[in-house]
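Contributing new complexes? Match this layout with iron/sulfur cluster.
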Amino acid sequence: MNGDLKIHATVHCDVLIIGAGGAALRCGAEILEKVPGASVYALTKVSHPQKSHTSTAQGGLAAVDPKDPLDAPIYHMFDTWKGSDCTADQNVVKLICESAWEQILWLENRGMHFSRDREGRLSKRTFGGHTRNFGESSVYRAVFEADRTGKGIMDTSWGETLKRGITFFNQCIAVELLLKDRRCGGCIAFQQKEGQFIRILAKATIIASGGSGQVFRVTTNCRQNTGDGLALVLQAGLPIMDPEAVQFHPTGIVGPGILASETLRSVGGILRNRDLEPFMVNYAPKMKELAPRDLVARAIESEIREGRGIVNPDHNIPHVWIDLRHLSDEVHEKQIPEVSSFFKRYVNLDTKKDLCPVRPSNHYHMGGIPTNQYGEVEDANQQVIGGLYAVGECAAASFHGFNRLGTNSILELITMGKLVAERVIDRVKGEPTRPDDSFRGDYFAARFAAYVQAVGSESVGALRNTMRTTMTEKVSVFRTEKSMTEAIEQLLELHERATRAPLTGRGLAGNQELLNRWELDNLLQVAMTISQAALHRKESRGAHFRDDYPVRQDAFNYHTLTSMNTFGAVEIGRREIDMSLFKAGGPHHEKFGYIERKY
Amino acid sequence: MKTTYDIELRIRRYDPDQDRTWVQSYRVEAGRIMRFVDLFRKINDEQDATLTWGSSCEHGQCGSCSVRVNGKPLLACELLVENAVASFKTTTFFIEPLPVAKVIRDLVIDTDQAYARVDQVKPYIITPKQPTAQNGAHQISPDELERYVDATRCINCFSCAAACISDHSTFLGPNAMLAAIVRVMDPREGEKRQRLDTIYNENGVYRCHSSQACTFVCPKGIDVAHFMAMAKQGAITVG
Ligand SMILES: Cc1cc2nc3c(=O)[nH]c(=O)nc-3n(C[C@H](O)[C@H](O)[C@H](O)COP(=O)(O)OP(=O)(O)OC[C@H]3O[C@@H](n4cnc5c(N)ncnc54)[C@H](O)[C@@H]3O)c2cc1C
Ligand code: SF4
Ligand code: FES
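Output block (do not edit by hand):
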């Protein structure tokens, strides 16, 4: 068996992209457009790039049209800064907001099927937190493709990469980064179909591996979002930035976690607890159901914690109800048909007659692999690691700070995807030699051998479920020193028990069980950094809320850099928040100081 | 209301290490609103960690989880136990991989092989036209978009290809045809000739027998057969 754990082949390329979601493909397309004939390899865990998580994004992407007399990039920058609870990096905010429209045109010209207005121009819609004139009123800023904007981006950028000759490795999983002398030379990858490990050497390696939602029990994220990119970076001795900044959407549909849009509350849906009491009035007497996302999520979570939630034997996930029964047929049919159909299809409920089960659902991770504004990965001392880049949800150039605005994520994928590509092109052109055989891969064989040889009576599935429940109960919407300390102890125990979880099937080809075991280690590592960073941050900021420290504190005006060389032994460092817009002192610079996040 | 069901899943399995195919039966107690992907996971967690299946988004948006249940191609992440019992009128379900590509293990097929047909029709703009509007974008009227927008909703789950009665070794398949039809109708595409050649060549739409099986099974509710018929009638050429 161990003979199989050796490197089966070594391949060389100019650019290696770990991931084939929106960020990866936009980046790959740009490289191939500018350097035709470059060898670009993209790996993906899923069976085909189109199956990546980005394909499920719905709402739209924010971008200021330079021809719009009512909107301006500076307003978008302000909204993003305020939304981030003053923790985004302003150089990155400026860069992304200013290059947004150009990227919309890139997509449009390459065939994305944007929704159109009567004149045939791109339609725009409003979205939470996006305003004009520094919060004066909401603004039409999000372009969209019906309710499948992410799919449009994926189809378009996948098509472009295909057209220009990218090489895809599907169901191929990066399992170790090859690092030497502060330089990255590629990765070791596991080809799941064949059950073989290969070494991929590249002049530039870009991590675009997406989110970490599977750390939590209820999540809107796809099955493969197990935080692999973050784990690979931690295992390479590099830090993760702001892992504690995790966004929860207030109304995920119980049990599949699918998102039930905010529209439900804006059309008059009422949240009710076990006793059918409309409880929002106790938390936000004026705004009630229309209070901001994080506040509503906390209200729901409080009801559940205080025993007023509902538990359904179908899934045993405590929840509350959203009541839509009083709304007119017209509202059900014209204004919320999409979400109504989700309730019908996934929980067999009729929104006109039934109470619908919802609860806060893990949605987005603002933190990630720390990079500068060019997507270059930085170590704990903010020194660039040569040849290593990160982009997309796994990265934190810090456009979102501690709270992301809706429609800003897929905007980040396409803008940063392009900007990172420019940097990578420079490197590929300026680097005559390819990495040599001295980039070896030191850990993967021992690691996988341990999985294959493990004996004992623990079950990977049970351990994963316990971890996800622990994180959902102790480190989610509400956090306290007590709950997080308990979670950390639990994670240590689970990590230890995992060494005694044997595999039933030991053949490597198509072995999903083996992959689940490897993913469990990644999930535990990400969970540990989230918990430790959240424990360290004795304040509340954006999506990170501590019962015991409910107010934002200036003393924590920094990004957390979390490193972990041995499981559980987390070291916390800091990175300064970039305030270049404020410091530049230009018009409106005062809007970019530490302001209150009140809506 | 009944809340749990005693379900029997008879799953066609394949082990590449021994090149062995067999049918394995699992009994699971299932809540009424569990999806079939939840049942697979439950089997993994409680009975048999080796059972291998595919899924990604788990809410009907990516097309990774398609399988045949009692002969019908569908998305396992959309099929609720309660609905399956009602529509198939049984609590025993026979589950097989889609017959559109080689099986890798159990319910997982070689998607690369299946997608090769989509790649062949070039699912992108071959020769872009210059933007028409002054601000750098194209102007496409909503009516024009309306004619083909449904065909852009395809998630390449290959359910239609699995249900199609035409010969898989020759026909490129309904979903590949949709990808080609979209770009023939898209006013931004400058290269129509090559596209029409693909659609009307010997592996193209004339292989379609108009059984409408594609429309019947499409989980996105796309009237695939309608687009095939339009193509056969030559009603798809624009601009
Ligand atoms: C339901 C839902 C709706 C959303 N709607 C919106 C919206 O309207 N607007 C918005 O701005 N944002 C939205 N978001 C957020 C947004 O969709 C994501 O943040 C974004 O798609 C992430 O893109 P990505 O390219 O970074 O990663 P992904 O699209 O997740 O791609 C990651 C890729 O990396 C691969 N990968 C992972 N690990 C490995 C590994 N170890 N080896 C090899 N490959 C690997 C995966 O297979 C995949 O191909 C939504 C999210 C959800 C869940
Ligand atoms: S047309 Fe429908 S059934 Fe066919 S692949 Fe596309 S989504 Fe699936
Ligand atoms: S898993 Fe995406 S469609 Fe079923």
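Reviewers usually confirm one structural detail per submission. For this one: Strands of chain B lie at 4-15, 20-31, 66-69, 72-75, 92-96, 103-105, 108-109.
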